[in-house]
Amino acid sequence: MSEGKTFNRWLIVVGAILIQLCLGAIYAWSVFRKPLETSLNITATQASLPFSFVLIFFALATVIGGRLQDKFGPRVVAIIGGILLAAGMILASFAQNIVMLIVAYGVVSGIGIGFAYVCPISAGVKWFPDKRGLITGLAVAGFGAGALIVGPLARAMIDRIGPFLTFRYLGIAYFVLIIIGALILRNPPLGYRPAGWNPQAATRTPQTSDFSAGQMIKTAQFWFIWMTYFAGCAAGLMIIGQTSPIAQELARFSKETAAIGVSVLAIFNTLGRIFWGRVSDSIGRTRALSLMFLINTVAILGYFLIPALPAIFWLGIALVGSSFGGYLAIYPAVTADYYGTKNSGINYGLVFTAYGVGGLLSNIFAPRMKEITGNYNAAFIVTALLCLLAAIVVFLLLKAPSPRSKQTT
Questions:
Q1: Is 200 a domain residue?
Q2: pLDDT > 70: what percent of the chain?
Q3: CA-to-CA distance for 90 and 52, rounded, in angstroms?
Q4: pLDDT level of residue 204 (50, 70, 90 thresholds)
Q5: Which residues, at least 6 apart from 93, have a Cβ–Cβ distance to it below 8 Å?
Q6: Does residue 199 sit within a domain?
Q7: Taking the CB of residue 183, how many other CB atoms lie within 10 A of it?
Q8: CA 157/CA 232 separation, integer angstroms
Q9: Does residue 181 carry a pLDDT above 90?
Q10: What is the extent of the structural domain holding 239?
Q11: Contact present, 36 and 315 (Cβ < 8 Å)
Q12: What are the pLDDT digits (tens) for 100-111?
């Protein structure tokens, strides 16, 4: 009897969530920012650099991790990622300056996150070709929930033992949980199909041949996907990286209330991954994405109202968080829909570089604008316009590539 018949594919979701809970804790970075400013005597822009670097190395490492997991399977690569993430966090606990913190947290941990992140997503789209939107949403829901748990936990730990020992203890916990989750992961047997699934009848899931990475990047659709993903990630990661400071500086909330804001954003980030993933299975990927980009545009422009109406802060983080979570669920499904699942690790790794570039630029740009102008207005305007442009591109141009566009490389 084949493994596809004896293995319960829903266990893949359990393993994915365990792994992603740890990886998604990077979204709680904003609770570390101000304590690190004090501990290391650095500026707000400098304190944002470890988060910016972890995002870019996370994204770059998904390309390497994706290729490795396509070759060796998800389990081994996820374990390597867990080891690197833990090592970076523990090294960060000994940092005495911002450079060491960037190298340990931003580079070493970022590479570990990238290696581990792509594994449950790639395994999920292979085990669930009939529910790609929902499963990629569930697979990355833990990533959004990571900050929900770690945000207030880290805030309490920082108050008791400081930011550096907090890095160390969190790193040890991440190592244990990721190893457990990784041991569950595996690929389905060759030619696996869920019982009763008829791909010809799945009207919402385009059927296409498997593209190599080289073939994929030669299609115009890849670049439309990349540019719109960049816009969504730049907007979402800017708000995520600056949520706690925005709460304290614009809404004038206490640091404890700001930490709650990080958790609320994480809740909607998590729910958005599941909700929008499921919606995209029903109404189509492009319709769902167009709607999400429009919602994000309005939500970010609403941040201008926070100083006069602090309650707008809560609505803003709910809308931005849910939309951003939806991007992380739908873009892996779009990539698998358009380019097949055989090379899903490396293919989505290349698409995911948009996440790293967007996060790096936006989390340098936003605090820098605050330092230069005294407010975040320029950052809000630029990211809102990017989202509006992305909505137009998705609605008018994003569609499955023609089989004729597949070229031999």
A1: no
A2: 93
A3: 19
A4: very low
A5: 164, 165, 166, 167, 168, 171
A6: no
A7: 13
A8: 32
A9: yes
A10: 3-187+209-399
A11: no
A12: 999 999 999 999
